[in-house]
Predict the 3D structure of the following.
Amino acid sequence: MMSRKNKITLTILIIGALFLSLVIWYKYEYSMYKVEAYEVNTPNLNKKLIIATQGSEFKDAITKRIIDHYKQDSIFIKVIDVSSLQKIEPKNYNAIVVMHTWENWKPPVDVQTFIDSTKDFQDRIIVLTTSGKGTFKMENVDTITCESKLENSESYSSKIIKKLTPLLKQ
């Protein structure tokens, strides 16, 4: 027969193992993968768009729709992972799209740092933030918020394109 102390220890270990399993499952189920950078059209074009994103089926669908919409225009499009935001110079782009997931009750550090350091260029930055409820966003940043539901990617792509169009017509 187990002693009271052993029962408590076993219970704590079981709860700990369940919690660890839940954390691993959540990380596997909802983690973003790193996006490989690529370009569409030639960099010597006058109009330039950069899309910084995290890898997910939802964000990939939005990125594809944006590219499909503008690829026939004379616009250079560069797609990068949000972890590379610190490498870009905002003044070199007519428009910047930043798509990220709200992680641990805040935006990714790279996104927050970029937004904080580019206050003078906020008028050309479009942010899409995804979260479980689709309501979380950075303070004082004009943001489109949503849940990552693939069936809604067309509607959110259209919202981004609507905001991009005047920036890319200048």
In short: The CA atoms of residues 31 and 78 lie 23 Å apart. The helical segments are 4-30, 57-70, 109-117, 153-169.
